[in-house]
Design brief:
CATH superfamily: Hydantoin permease
CATH architecture: Orthogonal Bundle
Largest sheet: none
Structural class: mainly alpha
């Protein structure tokens, strides 16, 4: 029975009878605590994708040409957000977080590893958006105080100040858990609309659409279509690992499935398109194409958009990171009961600030970003295939939240680990590593989605055979 329909055993499952402001990973959210409306969820996931990271990913896949990047966006993302809707429904029905949903497939203890990996990738996404926003702050500091901006010698001081400012904004944005996120996203959606329209108009005023359509990247910088598919898929699938943190607060099923799918697609299509035409437009206008400088702050500076654009970039980074930090913090609560949800959120916020310095040390933001996306596709593609298969096919959409923490319970398996799930996961990772560079995949559909399907199929076969052996 789903906690979306009624409380388990008729008990009030809200932490301390509503005194807490956030629920832990495995604590089902009761119906009376489900406060997110359809429009709240729509705004949340529109803002999640209408941000600097989406702009940057649009600039990265622009290396497939305008037509190629548009096709990648229109093909890769609806598939990813269908996957998100499937996991979102599971979160709504069971009432627990995304990483808690890995317990019935990977085991009570086995879910700790996916949770830790998910926490690291969400911290990584926070760092990506923070770094882009810090670039904007560096340009503002240059105009106001003469500091060296990002890309200029001696810019470390401005970037340091930018990272500190963004971290303070992040602490504010997650101070009340999902409640403050809801408020932040309501404000953010207005700013996103302003920025998106403004950027689109400015770019098309400077460069004609026919020039954008005819542009071709230098041969050595051109990205194969399948590689762009993997890059875009990894970008969008990263949101799937945090979807249940929000859909478990949805008031009804459509709020938890249709709203996030529509919002995520709208936000991504819009801002990826802005990133594509802004990057290509800047390349046409300047005569040079450098994907390292396709972040929105650098493009806005090159197009002369001024300080207001930089401020909006900073604020939209905050709205996106509120979701990243929410997911990372709740993933941490799936591994330990010693930290409250709010303390976990503060911990991951501080960790994200530290990780943001990595691109400064590595020397290339783009290389760090692409390597990060490869990691997401390799690790989380197979994981999601297994989780979806387990919920819909193995357990027939029926999880018992009261069993998710029990030693020797329904989801304990052997010592708290389901070996079959880990075997399928490892095989999926190996398949990705073996195929994503092969021309058959890198030039066509990419490896991410085929590996998701194959990992789910392998897991289903493993579990079916295991059940047959138990019966015999």
């Amino acid at each position: 029975m789903s906690v979306a329909d009624e409380n388990l055993s008729g008990q009030d499952l809200s932490p301390a009878h509503g005194q807490e402001i956030e629920y832990g990973a495995t604590t089902p959210v009761p119906p009376k605590a489900r406060s997110l409306s359809f429009w709240d969820m729509l705004a949340t996931w529109t803002c999640a994708n209408a941000n600097n990271g989406t702009w940057f990913i649009g600039g990265v896949v622009a290396a497939t040409t305008f037509t190629g990047s548009l096709l990648v966006t229109l093909i890769a993302n609806p598939i990813a957000y269908l996957v998100m809707a499937l996991v979102g429904y599971a979160g709504y029905k069971v009432g627990t977080s995304t990483m808690a949903l890995t317990r019935p497939s990977f085991g009570v203890r086995g879910s700790y590893l996916p949770s830790i990996l998910n926490m690291t990738q969400l911290i990584g996404w926070t760092a990506v958006n923070t770094f882009i926003a810090a670039i904007s702050i560096s340009f503002l500091l240059k105009d106001a105080f003469g500091f060296a901006a990002f890309g200029e010698p001696g810019s470390y001081k401005a970037m340091l100040i930018g990272i500190i400012i963004m971290t303070i904004l992040h602490f504010i944005s997650i101070s009340l858990g999902h409640r403050s996120v809801k408020v932040i996203e309501r404000i953010g959606i207005v700013l996103v609309i302003i920025l998106g329209l403004w950027e689109t108009v400015i770019v098309l005023q400077n460069v004609s659409f026919s020039q954008i359509l005819a542009w071709r990247p230098p041969a050595h910088l051109r990205m194969p279509f399948g590689s762009a598919m993997d890059t875009m898929a990894a970008f969008s699938l990263a949101w799937v690992t945090v979807i249940a943190e929000f859909t478990r607060y949805g008031k009804n099923r459509s709020t938890s499935t249709v709203a996030p799918m529509i919002g995520a697609n709208i936000g991504l299509f819009w801002f990826a398109f802005v990133g594509i035409i802004a990057t290509i437009g800047a390349a046409v206008a300047t005569g040079t194409y450098d994907p390292n400088n396709s972040d929105p702050s650098s493009i806005a500076s090159r197009l002369g958009l001024g300080w207001l654009a930089m401020v909006i970039i900073i604020l939209t980074s905050t709205t996106a990171n509120a979701i990243n930090l929410m997911g990372a913090g709740i993933s941490l609560t799936n591994t330990t009961k010693k930290m409250s949800p709010i303390l976990s959120l503060w911990t991951v916020t501080l960790a994200a600030a530290i990780v943001t310095f990595i691109p400064l040390l590595v020397g290339s933001f783009l290389e760090s970003f692409i390597g990060f996306l490869d990691y997401i596709g390799m690790v989380f593609g197979p994981l999601l295939g297994i989780v979806i298969t387990d919920f819909y096919l193995v357990h027939k959409r029926s999880y018992d939240a009261s069993e998710m923490e029990k030693a020797n319970g329904k989801y304990w398996f052997s010592g708290g680990f389901n070996v079959m799930a880990f075997a399928a996961w490892i095989i999926g990772v190996i398949l990705f590593l073996l195929t994503h560079k092969l021309p058959l995949f890198s030039n066509t559909i990419g490896a991410t989605y085929p590996v998701i399907i194959l990992s789910g199929l392998i897991y289903y076969l493993f579990m079916t055979q295991t059940k047959k052996r138990k019966v015999s």
